[in-house]
Amino acid sequence: MVNHVPARTLNDGTTLPAIGLGTWPMDDAQAEEAVAGALGLGYRLIDTAANYRNETGVGRGIARGGVPREEIVVTTKLPGRHHGYDETLASFEESRRRLGLDRVDLYLIHWPLPASTSTSTPGAP
Fold first, then answer.
1. What is the mean pLDDT of residues 107-117?
2. Bridge partners, residue 108, by sequence
């Protein structure tokens, strides 16, 4: 199938699909089916998170989807409970392992919690 999903180019030249498949609130089985089906329909951006508890299913769906890995953008997210340098590295590796991928294309902070690491007012120096 020809991919008709438009892409957007970022300032650094990276391109991202303009639309993607979000996997909340799917469980692993639902995510596997949805991701495999979405890839077949032309989706190339797949979004998940450790907090969704479906990264294993998302990874299985990617494996079943029949699309070369380099054509797919996979996003997952750092849970708030894992903020901190060592915690972030460990959480990332756990997500990557659950996904069954050698890399994640975009890793986001799921829910920034500045109050948990600072007592200053947001925006204050």
1. 76
2. 77
CA atoms of 54 and 32, how far apart (whole Å): 9
Q: What is the pLDDT of residues 4-16, one digit of tens each?
A: 789 999 999 999 9
Tokens of 13: 């030249």
The CA–CA distances, whole Å, from 62 to 38, 55, 66 equal: 10, 10, 8
User: Within the chain, how many helices (H) and strands (E) appear?
Assistant: 4, 6
Residues assigned a catalytic role? 52
Q: What are the structure tokens assigned to 23, written together?
A: 């996997």
Residue with the two structure tokens 């947001």: 122
Q: Where does residue 86 rank: exposed (0-12), middle (13-18), buried (19+ CB within 10 A)?
A: exposed
What is the Cα gyration radius of the chain? 16
